[in-house]
Amino acid sequence: MSQTPFTHKPHQHINRTMKPKHLFALAIALTLASCDRLDVPGMFFSSGTHTEDRVAQWLAWNDQHPATVIADAPDSYNIYVGSDIHLEGNTSRMERFLRAEANDPAGLFSIVNGDIANEPGPRPFRQLDSLLRSPAAADTLFTTIGNHDIYFDCQQYYQQYFHTSTYTVAVKTMGGATDLFIFLDSGNATHGRRQLQWLRNLLQHRDQYRHVVVATHTCLFRTSYNYTTTPAANLPEEEYYQLVDLMSRHNVSLFLMGHFHHKEEHTLGGVPYVMTDNLNETDDTPSCLVVTCADNISYRYSDL
Questions:
Q1: CB atoms within 10 A of CB 144
Q2: Residue 4 in domain
Q3: Cα–Cα distance between 186 and 222 in angstroms, integer?
């Protein structure tokens, strides 16, 4: 397997002892009503590529780069998870998120689960890159692409800085356990055939891992917080059933989601599905998720 992300303290082997036109436009506007800015041309014209095209690009990049392995991790470690940072200049909340992981003795890495951008152009990605190169930044950051990263035609910038959104990270602990983190592209509110097959193939090897954690931007569930019931809000129904069944059959340890800017938890088929709060600077009650991976896996929301 060679699914590899870009990590901002670049390495592949890390040693810890180191979605009729007007209806379509309205659907998108409602889907993104949680955010302050709308890309009006994007309501009428396709922005960026579609899921199958992007996944082909991600996997082609992966083929040229070895999968990331974090070696010699402690048997119990923490990861910090946030989403929907929507950077538009102010980065203070993102800085607090990165520092929280960096200052945690048990912290191993951080995840931004989609929607880095809330404006066109490279600035949000450049800002995040700059933060990650500061001495106080998290040890390592992994990302997924979100609908805003596509909606504002920012895939080129996501790709420039993060390279892929369909990949794995393995964590090998000093006690001999291996945990697998699987990152998915749901920026168009679907994972697509090719990516789902890639995921099925990975999960055939579930018995090799202590824990398997899956991260994707789009929330699977129509929740009390949803702003719309259009298909753009969540996955297509058939795909939803396939994905939930797949997670349950393979005993996935934790499924991480974002997109709707609220904390929410579900358990279905024995699998916890957790939606993270957003890290947007305009939100009054931001939080991140702290996941503890030990013999068992647990999590808690932490205010920022």
A1: 30
A2: no
A3: 16
Structure tokens at 177: 């356990």
The model's pTM: 0.85
Mean pLDDT by groups of 10 residues along the chain of 304 residues: 42 43 36 42 48 95 95 97 86 87 94 89 90 72 91 89 96 98 94 96 97 94 53 72 95 92 87 88 78 97 87
Cα distance between residue 277 and residue 257, in whole Å: 9
Question: 50: domain CATH number?
Answer: 3.60.21.10
Residue 12 lies in a domain: no
- Residue 7 within a domain: no
H or E element in which residue 70 lies: strand 68-73
The residue count of the chain comes to: 304
Tokens for 192? 């697509």
- Number of structural domains the chain divides into: 1
User: What integer pLDDT is reported at residue 261 of this predicted model?
Assistant: 76
Separate counts of helices (H) and strands (E) for the chain: 9, 13
Rounded Cα distance between 253 and 259, Å, is 21
CB atoms within 10 A of CB 136: 10
Question: What sign has the CA pseudo-torsion 225, 231, 237, 243?
Answer: negative
Q: Is the dihedral of CA 174, 70, 180, 75 positive or negative?
A: positive
Alpha-carbon distance of 87 to 125, in angstroms, equals 8
